[in-house]
Specification:
Helix 16 crosses helix 17 (363-392). The chain is globular and about 60 Å long. The chain has helices at 13-33, 35-45, 49-65, 67-76, 79-96, 103-132, 137-144, 146-179, 182-187, 195-216, 223-230, 239-268, 273-298, 305-322, 329-346, 350-358, 363-392, 396-413, 437-443, 457-466; strands at residues 3-4, 193-194, 424-426, 447-449. The chain is built from 20 helices and 4 strands. It is mainly α.
Length: 469
């Protein structure tokens, strides 16, 4: 295992980016292309929109909510071993789905089993990028998640073709074979050890052990505490981390609704099946171009990454409002183009902001808990959209509800925006609880608010420079 002082920002890290790119093609691309199966499942099993939506919502929720388990297993073994095991589990789940006779069967096999396997592939691959990259993290992450856009461009029409040729269960069986390629992708995740992160963790653990020994008279640490530490649950005590994840929950609650109902909404407007299945591909093409571009730009433009992220979220909400007013195929294509641009603006920064609010040494746990919030959103979002369709007879209210949730997520993010007009300076001593987290967490120094008359231009400039990351 390579042992380095700092992340290499290159080298074998680019092979890790390639691995994560291919994982996104298989795992996340399938999530956004399942809308093609949704229309087929409704027709074959004669189920309501709300009940049928549970297949994809449970699938996505399992991928995301099992991420803490994937993170814990990665800490116990390695990201490489966990990702390869996830590939095999995913293939088994999709293979068993071939024999499904009802929706419940598919919820268990495709939703739970396949979702759990995909989770073991997804979370460790993203965590490895955070370990291999620091200065170029957003750029590398943008390239890796480009796989989702490429997958949407390829998988949506491919799934429709496979359904037409081999029926829905034959298409799932072929997809099971594709999922087995995850063993190769996982093998590229070479472990790496960062000396500074290890030292920081050792010091932190030593301090905790000293405190525990003084309080418990050197008693054995309970098993539940070990589990608590293994899942890094203490991150939930961090105010910035918790606020960001609550916002992420609202964003994904709205974002989840379009993927499962977009194709069905287009078909309800009279769009032919093949053309309707191509709409996610349009979004995927745009995302494949925009995501790495925005990842690269966010590392270079003098704008806070949080503001960059918020701009993409606002654009996403506007696109959801525009979809119900698009009554022609050309208008829907235009919406998908702008949807891809908006999604490609904020998506590369999710892992970057999680790393910022959790720290590089705890990025596995941070990603795990962030995926739990996202998974809960996907579990609720798609069935809510389905129930709204069952109540109204069209998908318009689903898209309006999605826009509402997204705008609420942006409002929550305002709690992380530093206050204007405050004067801050670096100084040793106890930090003031109102110090912006960017200044205190990024530099390892302490700051507190000082009277305006003793704050110099130099100290303000230093803090502004440090907090502009």
């Amino acid at each position: 295992m390579p042992s380095l002082d700092v992340p290499p920002d290159g080298g074998w890290g680019w092979m890790v980016v390639l691995s994560t790119f291919l994982v996104h093609v298989i795992a996340l691309g399938a999530v956004k292309s399942l809308g093609v199966f949704y229309a087929e499942f409704r027709e074959v099993f004669n189920e309501s929109a709300g009940n049928t939506s549970f297949i994809s919502s449970v699938f996505v929720a399992t991928i995301l909510m099992c991420s803490p388990i994937a993170s814990a297993l990665s800490n116990l073994t390695s990201c490489r071993a966990v990702a390869m095991a996830g590939s095999v589990i995913s293939a088994v789940g999709l293979g068993v789905s071939f024999f499904a006779q009802n929706i419940v069967h598919l919820i268990i096999t495709t939703g739970l089993i396949t979702g759990f396997g995909m989770s073991l592939m997804y979370s460790p691959s993203l965590a490895m990028i955070g370990k291999y990259f620091h200065k170029r993290h957003a750029t590398a992450n943008g390239i890796a998640i480009r796989g989702t856009g490429v997958s949407m461009f390829v998988l949506s029409p491919l799934f429709q073709f496979l359904i037409d040729e081999f029926s829905w269960n034959g298409a799932l069986l072929i997809f099971a074979g594709m999922a087995l390629n995850g063993c190769v992708f996982g093998a590229l995740l070479r472990p790496i050890h960062l000396k500074d992160a290890g030292k920081a963790e050792e010091v932190e653990n030593a301090d905790e052990e000293t405190a525990d020994s003084s309080k418990t008279c050197k008693a054995i640490v309970p098993f539940c505490q070990k589990v608590f530490e293994m899942f890094d649950a203490s991150l939930l005590k961090s105010r910035p981390f918790l606020i960001y994840n609550l916002s992420l929950f609202g964003l994904m609650l709205g974002n989840s609704m379009i993927f499962v109902h977009l194709v069905a909404h287009a078909q309800a407007l009279g769009v032919e099946k093949t053309q309707a299945a191509f709409l996610p591909s349009v979004m995927g093409i745009v995302e494949a171009v925009v995501r790495p571009l925005n990842g690269w730009l966010s590392d270079r433009v003098p704008v806070r990454k949080l503001y960059y992220y918020m701009a993409g979220c606002v654009g996403l909400g506007i696109c959801n409002i525009a979809v119900p007013h698009s009554h022609t195929y050309a208008a829907l294509v235009a919406c998908m183009v702008f949807y891809g641009i908006s999604s490609g603006t904020y998506y590369p920064l999710i892992a970057v902001l999680i790393k910022k609010y959790s720290g590089v040494s705890r990025i596995s746990g941070g990603l795990g808990w962030a995926f739990v919030f996202q998974g809960a959103a996907f579990l609720l979002g798609q069935p809510i959209a389905g129930w709204l369709y069952d109540a109204t007879g069209n998908y318009d209210m689903s898209f309006y509800a999605a826009a509402t949730f997204i705008f609420i997520s942006v409002v929550i993010l305002l709690l992380l925006v530093p206050r204007k007009g405050g004067k801050w300076a670096l100084e040793s001593g106890k930090p003031d609880p109102e110090v912006p987290h960017e200044c205190d967490e990024l530099i390892g120094l302490q700051a507190r608010q000082l009277p305006a008359d003793i704050v110099t231009t130099e100290t303000l400039l230093i803090c502004e420079l440090l907090t502009s990351v």
